[in-house]
Amino acid sequence: MLTIFSDSCRWSQPRYSIGLKPSPLSQHTSCLYQARYMVVFGGYSTSNGHLNELWIFDLHVLSWSCPEYFGTPPSKRRGHGAAIVKDKMYIFGGFDGTSHLNDLHCIDLQSLSWVLLDMKGGPSPRRHHVMEVVGEHIVVYGGFDGEKYLEDVYSFNVKTNIWTCWHVLRPCISPSINIGGNGTMYGRSLHTMTFHNRRLIVFGGVHGSGSLQDVLYLESVAGKRLLKLRFVLRILGSLIYAKVLVLHIYSTLLKPSYIIFYFRHIIKVLEFNYI
After folding, report:
1. pLDDT tens sequence for the chain (275 residues)
2. Rounded-to-5 percentages of helix, strand, coil across the chain
3. Most buried among 55, 59, 102, 204, by the most CB within 10 A?
4. How many CB atoms lie within 10 A of CB 109?
5. DSSP per residue over 156-218, as a string?
C-alpha cells in the first residue's frame, strides 16, 4: 500500500537480481497476483515485434522468471486486456500487427496451464479496451477496432463462462467536456476503469484525434431500483405486521399486560427493519 507522508514523493528503482528479464515493452498488460507477483503478458518490443511471453516478477525477492507452461498460449499481441480472478488470469482481445482479436484465454497461475474459452456472444475484435473485475465478473468496455471507437460494455461470468452484453442508458443531457466542446464521447480507447462503491469509474482516453479528460460513472439502474423496492417492501411489511398485532390485541379483550407485550414487540420489529 502506497503511503504518502507529505505532498512530495520520489521515484526509485529496485535492484533486482541479474538474470532473465523481459525485453523493453509497451502495450503489454500487468496484473498483481497474491499481493506478491506482478504478472506481465504480451506487448510490443521494437527489437522483437509483437510478443506472447509470460513473465512474473516476484516483489519479495525482486527477481524475474519466465515460467514454462502447459497448453497453447494466446497468439502474439499488444493492446489487449488482462484481469486476475482468484488463481486465474484472463487475456482478451488485442492487435497482432495485422488483425484485431476477440479471443479469450485463461491461464491457471497455480498449474500454469492455458485454456482457450468460448467467445459465443462476446465482444467484437478490439484493442486498447479496459477490463475490470467485479466480483465473479470481468467487465470489458470500449476500445478501437481499426475503424471506430467502441462504446459497448460486456461482462464475462468466470463461473459459467457466459458473456453478457449490457444495455447502457445514457443521461438525458451529456456532461460538457472536452474534445473541442463536443460533449461526452462514450466510444473511446486507451482509457482507464476502476470499480468502487458499486460503480465503475472511467477516466480519459482517446476518441479520434482528441484526448478526453472526463470522468464517467457506470452503475446498475436495476440495482438502485431493487434497493428502493426492498426498502419500500420492508416498510409495508412492518406496517402490515403492526396492524395484524393490533387486531390481535383487540381480540384478546384489551388486557393491559398483553398491550404492553405487543407494543414492545412492534417497536423491536420496526427497529430491526429501519436501522
Report:
1. 555 556 788 899 888 776 789 999 999 999 999 999 999 999 999 999 999 999 999 999 999 999 999 999 999 999 999 999 999 999 999 999 999 999 999 999 999 999 999 888 999 999 999 999 999 999 999 999 999 999 999 999 999 999 999 988 766 444 444 443 445 678 999 999 999 988 999 999 999 888 999 999 998 765 555 455 555 556 666 666 656 655 665 665 555 555 555 556 555 555 544 44
2. 20, 40, 45
3. 55
4. 20
5. EETTTTEEEE--PPPPSSPPP--STT-------BS-EEEEETTEEEEEEEEETTEEEEEEEEE
